[in-house]
Automatic annotation (TrEMBL):
<comment type="similarity">
    <text>Belongs to the UDPGP type 2 family.</text>
</comment>
<keyword id="KW-0548">Nucleotidyltransferase</keyword>
<dbReference type="GO" id="GO:0016779">
    <property type="term" value="F:nucleotidyltransferase activity"/>
</dbReference>
<protein>
    <recommendedName>
        <fullName>UTP--glucose-1-phosphate uridylyltransferase</fullName>
        <ecNumber>2.7.7.9</ecNumber>
    </recommendedName>
</protein>
<dbReference type="Pfam" id="PF00483">
    <property type="entry name" value="NTP_transferase"/>
</dbReference>
<dbReference type="InterPro" id="IPR005771">
    <property type="entry name" value="GalU_uridylyltTrfase_bac/arc"/>
</dbReference>
<dbReference type="InterPro" id="IPR029044">
    <property type="entry name" value="Nucleotide-diphossugar_trans"/>
</dbReference>
<feature type="domain" description="Nucleotidyl transferase">
    <location>
        <begin position="14"/>
        <end position="279"/>
    </location>
</feature>
<keyword id="KW-0808">Transferase</keyword>
<dbReference type="InterPro" id="IPR005835">
    <property type="entry name" value="NTP_transferase_dom"/>
</dbReference>
């Protein structure tokens, strides 16, 4: 296999955030509000994701949206009336928070149309991305900013080329909830070469307990593969299926690597984990943590007493 080192060293500036899902697990809250706009403490989940992309050096963000997603655009746009009202009140603190999302990145939007799976959502970004490597960030996974996973993946792409996915060890009984990777080691202790991928396997059929989580740094070769990828699980075009072809077809000369992540991750796509994420993040806030931790200790003590 010949590695195109010029391609691997291309600076990555573009991030794609699929945001066309209906959020059915959070109904009725998401009947009129996009799930990406649900608050995690006092910021919508989608803002954490954009901030993560920006902190990794990605200044160009494309959101793949659908119907009823206009609040996403409004959130990252200026609200002159609100800003002026806060300015007249002298509320500089809240004014700064409101204005924070306005200039985070150069944000673009494209509609997915028919919801045909994550692979199709990524393919919708082809014209915007062109022939450059790019990142994909799923909004259901929040990565703690103290554990810069995406930045590490960008470096791994520069070192190894190809595409890079994020992997996390999970309980073997949970692998059926994820894409699962077969891997072999590399010279980097936290980087593996992916030799196969299976979408949501039964525990007995899983090649490992390395689960694919929602961060990807992709070679543009993935677009050609997605264009010929047939619908798979759920009758949707699966990104995992396209990556499996890249990982196993040596003729494509576009290998797949994985960064094994051991940091803090919050799954906001599950109601229970969403609530736990809010509690964890709020407990660590200087302005909220002390009072909330004290209340939690009292609440748990009272529950145990009963």
């Amino acid at each position: 296999m010949v590695l195109n080192m010029d391609s691997s060293r291309t600076r990555i500036t573009k991030a794609v955030i699929p945001a066309a899902g209906l959020g059915t697990r959070f109904l009725p809250a998401t009947k009129a509000t996009p799930k990406e706009m649900l608050p995690v403490v006092d910021k919508p989940a989608i803002q954490y994701v954009v901030e993560e992309a920006v902190s990794a050096g990605l200044s160009d963000v494309l959101m793949i949206t659908g119907r009823n997603k206009r609040p996403l655009e409004d959130h990252f746009d200026r609200n002159h009336e609100l800003e002026e009202a806060l300015r007249k009140k002298g509320d500089e603190g809240r004014l700064a928070k409101v204005a924070e999302s306005n200039d985070l990145a150069n944000i673009h939007y494209v509609r997915q149309g028919d919801p045909r799976g994550l692979g199709h959502a990524v393919l919708c970004a082809a014209e915007h991305v062109g022939d450059q490597p790019f990142a994909v960030l799923l909004g259901d996974d929040l990565i703690d900013p103290r554990d810069p996973l995406l930045a590490r993946m960008v470096r791994a792409r520069a070192d190894h080329g190809g595409s890079v996915i994020a992997l996390m060890e999970v309980d073997p009984e949970q692998v059926h909830l994820y894409g699962c990777a077969a891997v072999e080691t590399t010279a980097d202790s936290d980087v593996v070469r992916v030799t196969d991928l299976v979408e949501k396997p039964a525990p007995a059929d899983a090649p490992s307990n390395y689960a694919v989580i929602g961060r990807y740094v992709l070679d543009p070769a993935v677009f050609d593969v997605l264009r010929t990828t047939e619908p798979g699980r759920g009758n949707e075009i699966q990104l995992t299926d396209a990556l499996q072809r890249l990982a196993t077809d040596e003729e494509l000369q576009s290998p797949v690597y994985g960064v094994v992540f051991k940091g803090r991750r919050y799954d906001t796509g599950d109601r229970g984990d969403y609530l736990r994420a809010i509690v964890r993040l709020a407990c660590e806030r200087e302005d909220l943590g002390a009072d909330l931790r004290a209340w939690l200790r009292k609440y748990v003590a009272e529950e145990m007493a009963d």
